Fold:
Amino acid sequence: MALTNFFPRPSLGDIFVRKNLNGNEEEAMILSVQYSPKAGSLWQATMNTKNGIEFVTGDAEHRNIYDWRPKGWIYDDANGNWYSPADKAKIDAERAAVEAAKPEPETKDEFLVADAAEITNAMTKKRGVLPKLSPPQLPQV
Structure:
């Protein structure tokens, strides 16, 4: 199974976080880790939470804020993945380089009107000259 978004194997005592359904941040500490050196990114761990023991594994797709993730990891909306701070910085730098390499449009103000006089002239030509109205008279009380 090819994983698109997995976390590296944690160490004992690492902190994982998630947002619970009340909107609060919840933290848990890794108590035990089981892995095989031959399996690479596959691992299983238990962690101590406020409500008891919970399980987290390396072969799950972690996609939203309600999933357990290592503390400090950052969500990328464009990819829909979690990244370590170092990886997120690399991704942001690559995106900035791509944006900087895009050519500027030849005329930025191609569809913009220069000033209010042009708007008035365009409206006058289309509808004709607007009649001048006398100011409204307020009733006398």
Remarks:
- The first strand starts at residue 15 and ends at 19.
- The chain has two helices and seven strands.
- The longest helix spans residues 85-101.
- Strands lie at 15-19, 25-35, 43-49, 52-57, 69-70, 74-76, 81-83.
